[in-house]
Specification:
globular; Creatine Amidinohydrolase; 417 residues; alpha+beta; 11 helices; 2 domains
Length: 417
Amino acid sequence: MPEGSIGRPPPSPGSMGVDIEERVNFTRLHEYRLGRVREALERSELGALLCFDCNNIRYITSTAIGEWSRDKLTRYALLARGAEPMVWDFGSAAVYHRLHSPWIEPRNSRAAFSTMRGAVDPALGLPAQLAAEIADELRQAGMAGMPVGVDLVDAPLIFALQGAGIDVRDGQQVMLDARQVKSADEIMLLSTAAAMVDGAYQRVVDALKPGVRENEIVALVNETLYDMGSDDVESVNAVSGERCVPHPHNFSDRMIRPGDQAFFDVMHAFNGYRTCYYRCFSVGYSTPAQRDAYARAREWMDAAIELVKPGVSTDAIARLWPAAQEVGLASEREAFGLQFGHGLGLALHERPIISRLVSLERPMEIQSGMVFALETYCPATDGHSAARIEEEIVVTDDGPQVITLFPAQELFVTNPY
């Protein structure tokens, strides 16, 4: 078991439903998420939430359509105090959800007014029509005159909502408040998503030999995860050889060579719940410089995991990590995302965010039920290799549970000579 784990990790059952054991209870999941949003809304100054962020829509309504819709702003949801959630969908998807999502009242599943991010001629007036319908629903819910929280939206719609007399406020903070503590069902889905990446890394280890290209490893991981039942392989970073310094956060067609250090980050979703899961390898053999860099990155990781427990402030973790200059960068802005922590859930980046850039000045308290990833990075003294490690952590009252289980305590040499 990796260092930092306390007891058994959360279960990671297969994707099948069975009658012989308790697995993810999706009805309970729906009720938990909607309940969390209602509580966060009641604590806020808002009368309603109007969400265009696909993650927030799914959290509130337990509906989703293809990943192609993620950046299109074609769907939105409204939750007013004391009212049932409403979702406006992309054309016929509204009819589909009336048939297959019975937890949404039929009248509350509607076709959207979509501007397609401005591609529809503004003269048609769709933003004004959308704003008028939202204003009418707020009146029916008794929330007219109260501020409305909005998460992501394009400029014409902001103007239209304001033109309809709606006081628009920041709704993303309320949604992040709701989403930061995970239920047992959410943790099981996050653990299952991580288990799928465990399997993908086994295939990476088998394939990582001289002559293979970074993009071929990316294709292999995509194929493996979709075969396993992934909803969405958001991204796979593949970085090797001289590309390790500075970290480019992407992949290329570079060909792997003997003695390369290589690291990968797998970001995918299972039932919407995401991973951010780095592993680092040397190909064929490792050098003293590579092993030293990896040992330092591991030390920083283990020190951070050991500190994770309810009540600890995020600045305490950030202070354990090296300053930007210690990894060869000029500022914490340039180093952002290297010594890093971030919440995981329906989004890749939720609360808490842990970084020397933000946590020293504005820390937050770690709570039981949070799930977040911790990332460390250390360049090697050879000037081109670097170590990159990431672990996903469940915060419990008894200590941290690591759910990323592919071996990472020592630098893994693939296909050694």
